[in-house]
């Protein structure tokens, strides 16, 4: 029923990442011949440098699973929806990296139809594309320091192929009318949440509702250019009426959802995402998976349990559909300075604006 015929494999660019004026990494994607329905691609990352590199596995396809939106997928010039997990994370640990010796490669295979809406027939244009600070690092020969570029970017060749259209994969729920399940206010639990966990969740939601309302009120009162204070500029960058309006809309939508929609809190986490704070699927409002880092976080302050709720609520498409362009205070602030357009679509920037720790006006 499904036919995955390769039409073209562009090789104009081999997908290279520039580090200290060099091009040490090549990334190639190619289709995988198969008989079953799906859109399997093989990703090969090769270290072209003379130094050992390490790559953050959050942005790879280990065990044929995606942990992040790492492909650009287009059909008829329109971006195809990503339906995989989007997680709030802390700082990476050494075990979150894979190491590549000079000339070494890592090869991974993933079925894109399990993570992107590829139900329509047509020619799909695909590229592996990650532009996240810290995604790749060069390890010195003595392993005493890390050389890191400010703006790491990993880009593959372009791949195009025809698909006849397929049945809805198990985790592509964007076509279901999930919003209809969330009309009535309420709270339900999945994943065997304990009584003590339910108390923690309820406290976090109470505070998150307060934070959402306060953030919306701040934006309503400071919408004029001369009133956009340090707090706004720290997390969202230079003022523009369009960007300011979008941020305000995000907070009004997520605050409304926190207060009036039915929330489903899930205490089950996938193994690969176990050490994160939480994750959601953008087109499944308002279902939030809470993970290990959430339970040890403070109720308030930066990277808090209440702030995590704000972060995850901002991810849902119906609330604005934010991304994870940067994690952590430092990188979120830097994003606001360098790229305000991305900052207003970054979930951590929304969380830190709402947590407001330390307090800014």
TrEMBL record:
Cofactor(s) required for function per UniProt: Zn(2+)
Pfam families reported in the protein's UniProt record: Aspzincin_M35
InterPro entries, alphabetized: Fungal_M35_metalloproteases, Lys_MEP, MetalloPept_cat_dom_sf
One BP term from GO: proteolysis
Residue intervals of the Lysine-specific metallo-endopeptidase domain: 217-355
Molecular function terms, GO-annotated: metal ion binding; metalloendopeptidase activity
Keywords per UniProt: Hydrolase, Metal-binding, Metalloprotease, Protease, Signal, Zinc
Entry protein name: Lysine-specific metallo-endopeptidase domain-containing protein
Source organism of the structure: Vibrio aerogenes CECT 7868
Lineage: Bacteria, Pseudomonadati, Pseudomonadota, Gammaproteobacteria, Vibrionales
